[in-house]
Amino acid sequence: MTRATVCLTIDFDAVSPWLHAREFGSTPVKRSRGRFGADVGAPRLLDLFERLDVPSTWFVPGHTIDSFPEPCQRAVDAGHEIGHHGWSHTPPSDYESRAAERADIARGIESIEDLTGSAPAGYRSPSWDFSAHTVSLLKEFGFEWSSSGMAREFEPYELTEEYAPVDDPYEVGEPVEITEMPVSWQRDDYPALAFSGSRAFADEAAVFDHWRRQFDWMYEHHAGGAYVLTLHPQVSGRSPRPAMLRELIEHMAAKPDVDFATVSDALAGMG
Ligand SMILES: [Zn+2]
């Protein structure tokens, strides 16, 4: 029996989020952080996963696929899964209308189809947020799963159309036949390790230790759980983080009955 499943998930944003930079707008130096992710960070992570022989799921905006095709192709050729992450990496609540959000999702699917030859099974929303229309759009486009929500910690759950007015009790609503593979800001490199505005980054060793302790907790207390770690090439691809990531993966792999899987394979195995 699999005691723990590890899903290494990579949000390969590259330049796309910097085109929406709210503070001072999009600038060459902001965009250079994204270029680092595409030119240096992504190859470093791909090298690491190849050396350790572990699968992963890459959530790639169409903008990244169309701007930096080489590392995207390399991820596909190495057998990593490609998930949807918008075309333009617009946070869903920023779209002016359902039609605008729908068009961006459709364009993102086209970019992935051009890259892999098939439509993606999974979606991860940019900035981990949904608009009032996102769930119905995911349903319309036939996505099988999403990986953007936080209603559970280590177990998949059903996505629903919620009822959430401010002046009435909250209702979870009916399942829409899309499985949610939960994420956590606690297991995302960006808030902890990326410089943002006036916020300094955290102590790297403490962050990797935190991730290790979370895995150990799940392994001990939540048999059969899925541990989703979210990494950005422009954050975790910077030195010396690939080496620290290697130690973390080796720590997890050394325990009995631990599987590393793409999100699609993890869900198939847990279903
Ligand atoms: Zn992203």
From TrEMBL:
Domain of life: Archaea
InterPro entries tied to this protein: Glyco_hydro/deAcase_b/a-brl, NODB_dom, PgdA-like
Gene3D superfamilies for the chain: Glycoside hydrolase/deacetylase
Pfam family, one: Polysacc_deac_1
Residues of the NodB homology domain: 28-261
SUPFAM superfamilies: Glycoside hydrolase/deacetylase (SSF88713)
Record-given protein name: Polysaccharide deacetylase
